[in-house]
Amino acid sequence: MTSKNRMSRIRAASLVCALGFGFSVAALSARAEDKPKGNGATYKPAPTSPAQQLGMARGVVAHGQDLAQRLMHMVDQARREGDVIRLTCLNDKLQQANANVGTAQGRLEEMTKATDADSRGHEFTVISVIGQKLQTLDQEANQCVGQDLYETGATKVQTEIDKSKDSYDSSSGSVPVLLPPGVPSVPGTSSGVK
Predict the structure, then answer these.
(1) Which of 89, 125, 173, 183 lies most in the core, judged by the most C-beta atoms within 10 Å?
(2) What is the pTM of this model?
């Protein structure tokens, strides 16, 4: 086989691979758009007009502010109840929500200042991702459980002493001395041990 013939076979194989790859990527993209997302919603393309993007971005910021406000009330309630476990969980979610809201507000300002469609589209994409994170934080905050889950009610300790095992003679009038376990007792001088 000549080198010219070999090169043309390699080119043909490369072309077949490239075409096959292109068709499979196109098929996967088409299937991904038809597939429902994780929450059951179908794929919706991003709004194309700047006014639609701005309206949705403002909605994300408003949702984040509402979430932060609600989390502050939940943190205050957990603090009043003394529920340390729920307080810690909710405080973490509140801090994350506040950070995401601050980022979304900054990105919204940048979006309103953007003069070209690419910059505006980028800021909208970032705000959309922040909106998804805020939805996740909302769900996680609702799953924060407190110590009331672990409470079993009032505890009562009852001790019974078996009198048959008692070596203490209560008729002598002297109080027995009990040493803690692990502390050796030193015999007195009357025992004959020096």
Answers:
(1) 89
(2) 0.53
